[in-house]
Amino acid sequence: MYKLIIKGGAKLSGAVSVGGAKNASLPILAATLLAEGQYILRNVPKLHDIGTMSKLLSQLDVQAECDKNSRFCGTDGIDICLSSVNGDLLLTNNGGARCEALYEVVKTMRASILALGPLLAKRSKARVSLPGGCAIGERPVDLHISALEAMGADIKVSHGYIDAECSRLKGADITFKTITVTGTENIMMAAVLADGVTVLQNAAQEPEIVDLANFLRRMGAKITGDGTHCIQIEGVDKLRPADYSVMPDRIEAGTFLCAVAGAGGGAVITGAPVAEMKALISSLKSAGVKITDKGGGDLFVESDGVLNATDVTTMPYPGFPTDMQAQFMAVMTKAVGTSLINETIFENRFMHVAELKRMGADITVKDSSAVVRGVKELSGAQVMASDLRASAGLVIAALMASNTSEVQRIYHLDRGYEDFEKKLALLGADIKRVKAS
Ligand code: EPZ
User: Fold this and answer.
1) What are the Cα distances from residue 38, in Å, to 54, 61, 65, 74?
2) 134 in active site
3) Of the candidates 247, 147, 148, which has an alpha carbon nearest to the alpha carbon of residue 206?
4) 351-358 and 388-400 helices, crossing angle to 10°
5) Which of 8, 39, 300, 376 lies 20 to 30 Å from 125 when distance is taken between CA atoms?
6) Per-residue pLDDT band at 155 (split at 50, 70, 90)
7) Beta strands 100-101; 125-129: pairing state
8) 205: number of Cβ within 10 Å
């Protein structure tokens, strides 16, 4: 186990590049179940979750080609392949018949549910462990299941597993009662080989869904409307493997914007998907952060570290991303005035509040709202990460604090950020990873 030691107070400067999107890579990896043959996936980030997904695929006869230095011994001791030759992920789908995503892997990464749709579409059978909840909420998958049933799948849920069968799924008109990102992705992947047309209403519009649709189209799928609330998929008989480069990670880019906003200084974030970051950029500008689009994905961000309190409400895309809520809250802890932060997507995504209060933040949570009263100073403390984005928020608060902080359980961070502390150190942060005693 490791922890981060962070000495706060340094102003940030220099430049940092944005990696590939975790939440685009995961569904795209799952989509390799849909056609036999070789795939080259580029710009896939070296993250623990990517390693876990490649381990899951290896149990489903899709092998990632790994060189020795791309192996990674995860916190659960599983030796997993993160990425292969020069950072490209080479995957071969051997056309096997295995169709079980077991609890041992699924329990470590909820996104394993993304195997359900493609397995059912391609192998007519799937046995996938229910993902279970996580720190931020119950995370049900009822909408995934009901949509597949509407497409003709015979599904039983028992003993913690989803057992699904269907010789060939049928196109259907499906309306999601709640906007669900992986639900939209799962059904899109189920529909591409179905018999007939599937229309998804109230579909999620996240950019990662468009990235998945682009990959599926390259495989020969017929999809229109992705990026809107209504997606049409015309099923085809067969798909082919494809090469693809994953979109940049808008949440990693936004996390670095918040780090500079909170710590102060001036830096360039390069390779960011700027057009997909409008809501966050608008909120940071309202708080007084100077953000200049230099073109070509380069954002210049400048802050004197003393900002105006700003209210945000998390919403499905293109609204303010729930995955940026903890990082933005950290920035608001020292803003002048009082900010109201409403979390409308997940029922328990304020786990970082108690830890921020240990650093001297003044925050009151009532139901799904947090009232953040700006304080003059945060004091360094030992804090504990609870989930991926909460840990990023704690690191940002530690950069803003006087004296030294320790952030423990940073395996949460390693799930979604590649070389996070190295990139922050490149920007001038006094941060290092040490073995936890
Ligand atoms: C995806 O999770 C992301 N994960 C999450 O990012 C992100 O926070 C979330 O979308 C919202 O944007 C990946 O893409 C791998 P949802 P997902 O289904 O798909 C309810 C990160 O930090 N719901 O859109 O699991 C659910 O409870 C992670 O990178 C049902 O009720 O989220 C929630 O309240 C965290 N039934 C709401 O919908 C269902 O069947 C939105 O969840 C499915 C979802």
Assistant:
1) 14, 12, 10, 26
2) yes
3) 247
4) 20
5) 39
6) very high
7) parallel
8) 20
Q: What are phi and psi of 18, to 5 degrees?
A: -95, 135
Peptide bond into 131 cis (omega under 30): no
Q: What is the pLDDT of residues 183-230, one digit of tens each?
A: 999 999 999 999 999 999 999 999 999 999 999 999 999 999 999 999
The catalytically annotated residue of 134, 166, 230, 258 is 134
Query: What one-letter code names the amino acid at 362?
Result: D
* Ligand 1 mutation target, pool 44, 182, 342, 349, most atoms within 8 A of CB: 182
Helix or strand holding residue 63 (H, E): strand 62-65
Type of residue found at 424: L
DSSP for residue 11: P
Average pLDDT score, the chain: 94
At position 97, the amino acid (one-letter code) is A
Alpha-carbon span 363 to 357, nearest angstrom: 7
Q: How open is the CA angle 186-188-194, to the nearest 5 degrees?
A: 110
Q: Using a 6 Å cutoff on CB, does residue 385 contact ligand 1?
A: no
Mean pLDDT of 402-427: 95
- Whether 408 shows a pLDDT value over 90: the answer reads yes
Q: Which amino acid is at 48?
A: H
Residue 14 β-bridge partners: 267
CA dihedral (83, 88, 94, 99) in degrees, to 10, reads 50
pTM of the predicted model as reported, rounded to 2 decimal places: 0.97
CA dihedral 21, 25, 28, 30 (to 10 degrees): -150
pLDDT in tens, 54-80: 999 999 999 988 766 666 655 555 556
